[in-house]
From TrEMBL:
<feature type="signal peptide">
    <location>
        <begin position="1"/>
        <end position="22"/>
    </location>
</feature>
<keyword id="KW-0121">Carboxypeptidase</keyword>
<dbReference type="InterPro" id="IPR001563">
    <property type="entry name" value="Peptidase_S10"/>
</dbReference>
<dbReference type="GO" id="GO:0006508">
    <property type="term" value="P:proteolysis"/>
</dbReference>
<keyword id="KW-0378">Hydrolase</keyword>
<keyword id="KW-0732">Signal</keyword>
<feature type="region of interest" description="Disordered">
    <location>
        <begin position="24"/>
        <end position="65"/>
    </location>
</feature>
<dbReference type="Pfam" id="PF00450">
    <property type="entry name" value="Peptidase_S10"/>
</dbReference>
<keyword id="KW-0645">Protease</keyword>
<feature type="compositionally biased region" description="Basic and acidic residues">
    <location>
        <begin position="27"/>
        <end position="61"/>
    </location>
</feature>
<protein>
    <submittedName>
        <fullName>Peptidase S10 serine carboxypeptidase</fullName>
    </submittedName>
</protein>
<dbReference type="InterPro" id="IPR029058">
    <property type="entry name" value="AB_hydrolase_fold"/>
</dbReference>
<dbReference type="GO" id="GO:0004185">
    <property type="term" value="F:serine-type carboxypeptidase activity"/>
</dbReference>
């Protein structure tokens, strides 16, 4: 997830260190008598007896078993839950411990299908975004074998909801690893290590990449088809990982599932391109709430196409002209925007033709006294402060946050039998830095393009929600169209659309479609 509203936020677990070293033998290191006499003569003081520092024993993952019915078939599985240590490059100690849950499907013999059949059994590494989010959203919302019990439309969930089997899990076709980046979930820097080394674009990519390499080695999965699945800021993380894993370790991934993923921050910010990227999503959201003129209301796809054409033509030119735009043209553009968004023309003119997400969320249903959600524009709630120009909070986040927090904390301890007494950080808790971009906009289009060009077998599935007002669909489309890759490589890219928003898997029809799309993608069809 990217962080709600004011935070650019928007699911990886670590294990304790090493087996203890054997104590040195009692006689080791004793000096001969002649050396002792020399020491006495020189008056040197002997240091106190000192044993070498013991490295902490590595905590073994907790292993549990379960089953889930997917597509009418019973899938038995094993889950490993634990903390995997990230080691310093010289092997002298730990940098961090990353919390993870590793699900493996079991065969008829009750044993995991891999590593015995590793070459035939895919493995998918999953993470959310933020930056600063744990993987609970994809884990307990989208792809894992258990999910939060939420209403079928994904609009509301009780904070005390149960965790139920997930019939739309993809565990039948791929093993799954859910990763919490350092500072999220139960993942923490090692004692004496600073979290800042992980809390930057490249530091994050490096640490998650090292985790993936380490787990792949430990679990004997180098021969397996390997996939990444990242949501929201996970688009940036995943784009970087496709390049990093190949160039650093020679670990080539077969595919990247980019769920509501941002790749270039400029496309979702307050820039000209950001304003253009949001317009089709505003139109789709206004259509859902029946705020468009009759001809557009009659055909959603036509309405979105009209918004996209306008954004790439007259609207873009008008924004480029800024204050030099003639008054008559300004009114004409405002009227067109009103037609496509359901907002008042005067409001749009007062906003200088730039409709921010907050302005849209606050004003689309203002007459009804409601605001709409950012993560999902279908979600509404009462506007408790009518004087606000922007919404006080995001109902599509607050409606589900308690449920996911409750589900994660309960299921990790009860279903996965993992005991963790410190706070499990769902979202937040990291002080992110963009210093490695030297003040420039974070843009990983070049890293993804490089990965596609150097690994021509790499495929990417982009999953986009029509009513996503956090990472609008056209922000991702713009990145796809500006990868500057050879024309034949575009056949490696697939785009799928969903009726809801950022976390489309919360809407049952979308969850079913998402499963079908990912399964088809992994199978290479």
């Amino acid at each position: 997830m990217i962080r709600p509203l004011s935070c650019l936020a928007l699911l990886s677990l670590c294990a304790f260190g090493f087996s203890a070293l054997a104590d040195e033998k009692e006689e080791a290191g004793k000096k001969p008598d002649t050396e002792k006499k020399e020491d006495a003569k020189s008056g040197d003081k002997k240091p106190a007896d000192h044993k070498p520092e013991e490295k902490p024993k590595e905590e073994k993952p907790v292993v549990t078993q379960g089953e889930v019915t997917i597509g009418g078939q019973q899938v038995k599985f094993q889950a490993k839950t634990g903390l995997l240590p990230l080691l310093k490059e010289d092997g002298s100690g730990e940098k961090a411990k990353i919390f993870y849950v590793y699900y493996q499907a079991l065969g008829d013999d009750g044993k995991p299908l891999a590593p015995k059949d590793a070459a035939k059994r895919p493995i998918t590494f999953c993470f959310n975004g933020g930056p600063g989010s744990s993987s609970v959203w994809l884990h307990f919302g989208g792809l894992g074998p258990r999910k939060v019990d939420i209403d079928p439309q994904g609009l509301q969930a009780s904070p005390h909801t149960a965790v139920v089997p997930n019939p739309n899990s993809i565990l039948d076709v791929t093993d799954l690893v859910f990763i919490d980046p350092v500072g999220t979930g139960a993942s923490r820097p090692a004692k004496g290590e600073k979290g800042e080394q992980f809390w930057s674009v490249n530091g994050d990519i490096d640490s998650i990449g090292e985790f993936i390499r380490s787990l792949t080695t430990r679990e004997q999965r180098w021969a397996s088809p390997k996939f990444l699945c990242g949501e929201s800021y996970g688009g940036i993380r995943g784009s970087g990982l496709c390049d990093f894993l190949a160039s650093k370790f020679g670990l080539y991934v077969d595919g990247f599932v980019c769920v509501s993923g941002v790749i270039n921050f400029e496309n979702i910010g307050g820039s000209l391109q950001g304003a253009l990227s949001f317009l089709p999503s505003y139109t789709a959201t206004a259509h859902f709430h029946k705020k468009l003129p009759p001809d557009l209301q009659a055909d959603r796809d036509k309405a979105i196409a009209e918004a996209r054409t306008f954004a790439q033509g007259d609207y873009a030119l008008a924004l480029l002209k800024g204050d030099s735009l003639p008054a008559a043209d300004r009114t004409r553009i405002a009227e067109k925007l009103a037609r496509l968004t359901g907002l008042d023309r005067d409001l749009i003119e007062r906003a200088h033709l730039i409709i921010s997400p907050g302005l849209f969320m606050e004003n689309l249903l203002r007459k009804e006294g409601k605001i709409v959600g950012r993560y999902d524009g279908r979600v509404t709630t009462e506007d408790y402060d009518r004087l606000n120009t922007h919404p006080e909070f995001d109902p599509s986040y607050t409606n589900i946050y308690g449920a996911f927090s409750s589900a994660a904390n309960a299921s990790i301890r009860s279903d996965l039998n993992y005991e963790w007494d410190l706070p499990y950080t769902i979202l937040g808790g990291v002080n992110w830095s963009y210093h490695d971009f030297d003040g420039e906009v974070v843009n990983l289009e070049d890293r993804l393009a490089k990965a596609l060009k150097t690994n021509t077998k790499l495929r990417v599935l982009f999953c986009l929600g029509y009513r996503d007002l956090a990472v609008p669909m056209d922000s991702t489309l713009y990145s796809i169209e500006h990868l500057h890759i050879p024309a034949d490589l575009h056949s490696n890219l697939t785009i799928q659309y969903y009726e809801s928003g950022h976390m489309m898997y919360l809407n049952q029809p979308d969850a079913e479609k998402l499963r079908r799309d990912i399964v088809t993608f992994i199978r290479g069809k």
